[in-house]
Fold these 2 entries.
Entry 1:
Amino acid sequence: MSLHLQPVRVATGSDDTESQLVFSGGFLVAVLVRLSDDHGEDAGSWFLEAGFGRVNDLIQHTFLDLKEAQDWIECRLAGG
Amino acid sequence: MTSAPKPSIDILIRKLESIAPLSDEERRAIEGLPIMIRPLKPDQDIVRDQDRPSQCCLMLEGWACRYKLLSQGKRQIFSLHIPGDIPDLLSLHLEVMDHSFGTLTPATVAFIPHHSLHELTARFPRVAAAFWRNTLVDAAVFREWMIGMGRRDATQAIAHLFCELYLRLQAVGLAENHMYRLPVTQSDIADALGITNVHVNRVLKVLRAKGLITLVGGTLQINDWMELTKFSEFDPTYLHLKQQAG
């Protein structure tokens, strides 16, 4: 099932505010936050701020771009 | 800050005396322990999960941690160790290691044979009691660790850890004036508290912005000790130090 992204701003208590809600089949499955310049070499990466159900992961990954993030989320939703 | 003297077993005496009294004779007996000093690189295992050690490892210089590796590269750090600590003291009585222990920074360690420690503790029951007390304090630190991971938010947990490390380092003469070398990485802190690098980075910014800490070039300055302890609900009772400062 393809993912649907919706841009939002998330109050993370930091400069990391640019975010995307990630929906699958109408369900919110993840919140991705773009890391600000505060994060040095990780700046611009997308951080799994929250994942729900199968997308929940204690590691809370960081992805180079939204495509990589979506691929990972789809893999998790597929049971991978 | 006190400059580091030549690494020796004196640091163990200093550590033990921070939690229990020792007589001159007991001190001399500890000084007489046979030790084998080894320099180690960062991220080098000293004892691995499932090992059956025949010696204990005293930290003389540098930092180490006890940890366990999980699937997908996840690492949980259970405890951070500084000079004066014997992180694998438990191997004296528990034959098989149930976790690993390795350096985080360049380190100098002293290996002490188990049989020598058994002889020492048999001859000097108060030294045995000091070691026991040491492991009990370790257990108390673990209890605080559990609270930090389970019930404190990331900002409080890191602030609490900074307070704890200051008092532990101060007890062995490696910190004063609310300042110390903090040679561990953000990733180490994240693995210790069960959070992410991203959270550690955010929290450090918040603590700096509040004026509570300054962290430059690996040196941590606690700018407002009272406020940091209040903010993190830090109560040093669990360290059971003979002389607590603040």
Entry 2:
Amino acid sequence: MSAQDFTIAAGLAARRRLGATVAMVALVVLLMLISLGTGPVRLSPLTVIEALFGGGSDVSQVIVREIRLPRTILAFAIGAILGLSGAALQGLLRNPLASPSLFGAPQSAAFGAVLVIALGLADVRSYALPVAAIIAAFGSVFVLLAIAGRNAGLLILILAGLAISSLAGAATALVMNLASNPFLVLEIAFWLLGSLEDRSFQHVAMALPFIVAGAAILLSQASAFRALTLGEEAAQSLGVDVGRLRLFVISGVALGVGGAVAVTGTIGFIGLVAPHLMRPLIGHDPARLLLPSALAGAALLLAADIAVRIIPSTSDIKVGVLTSIIGVPFFLYLIRRERRALGGGVA
Amino acid sequence: MTLLSAQHLGVTLAGRTVLSDVSLSLSPGHLVALVGPNGAGKTTLLRALAGLVASVGTVHIGGDVLSSLALRERAKRFGYLPQGHVVHWPLPARDIVALGRFPHGVTDPARMTAKDVDAVLRAMQAADVVEFADRRVTELSGGERSRVALARVLAVEAPVILADEPIASLDPRHQIDVMKSLRTAADGGVLVIVVTHDLGLAARFADRVMVLSAGRLVSQGAPAAALSEQVMHDVFRISAYRAEYQNEAVIVPWADV
């Protein structure tokens, strides 16, 4: 093999990955257009595009730009940060079953948010809600990694995650238990199910800065995840500050997931599923998976949010319920597929 | 000329003294075998030399104090091969080897300078892994994977290679292949330190043997001298068959004592 062959082979692989990424971008754009067109008044993608750029009737402009655009932006951004967080955690822990929801991050963020709601501090114009959610998410991931320790096996991580999400769930239940007002309990209960309905640009303004910051932090660590393929010790010997990397990942996930949960409630399993959908197309390189996983997460949440508006039902299905109903069987399938490795440890 | 030296190096892990008062001085172009019973502190010594574990004492590398060097700078000076040839994701072998260029600023194996591509190719040729450049490492046999891991370390092109049990669980042919590659690196001017339990291969390939026992360096020198009958008896609690073959020391562990 000459240097030229070497470069050519690498170039071919790179082109294939680029193709897959471009296709994902196209899919996400298409889903955004469909999302903007879906609702009580159905609009064709062309009408949507027209309305977006200030053309068409006033009614369609109001529907697209003021009512549906915030919802679509949130579905995109939240799906993307959940997919990205999943890929980042899988990279950090070198484990394909890692994801924010299995580690109790969204559940903890929800507790932080519920506490703020119950105390009557939640105001769409204040940042109390996202900040509380982010702090709780940070605390949960930090505690999880502290308990699990370095080079933790999956069993320890899952058990610790189970404990943390159970604790967060119990704490949330306690808040609801102690709430004086039954309407408040109902509000919290529905909020917990996770939904993108009736979200405004104020919600976008509340969540987006945190999501963007979280995404930037996670993406900046891409190459460190690749070095971690060789294990923490080898990565450190290559110049990766593993301790700092962990802190960055925890912070990025907490900012993103906390910001997301604050405006939509808990939406689970997107972080687990998205990287798996991309591995057959992109390969297993944890650095290269980050961006495509974000796109896959965005596509999944956009599709789920379109589905809840199309599926005929007497009362609205919440999108968080739908992602869990689809995500859990997928998780079981993954466990089955990884059974051999899980039973005997990865060679 | 000294390339790597340590003065009064000590490591305490979870309250237990794992390494104490180790001083050594090693020159480039040597293959040094680090031997000792299980739990003697061999891995810890390698990690302390590379600055991967908190230690007391001083390490000098190429005239600089190790602790004064930034992480990236240290990474350029040590090629560190941990035990077990761990690879967590099924990446192609070429991408694994390219990680050796990480300290030199290669963060994406698809975007390497001609110099980096050359270094990666040289390393793959030296470890004889060019033929499976495009295969996923997880699909390779244990022996093949150990050679890919070795190529990754060679690709760093560091003045010092620290290899932790690179030949454990390999068949005899692969053991010899790996030791020969390391020997070639040493002959090219690199200081290679190999942790191994194979005293025979240590005697066969190393210029120098260091014997570690209970965290202390108890013997060092040319193989036959460092692995004296006394050391075999006291440290390893065995007797060995000793001979000479083609002007080299042959040491075969024989019986317990």
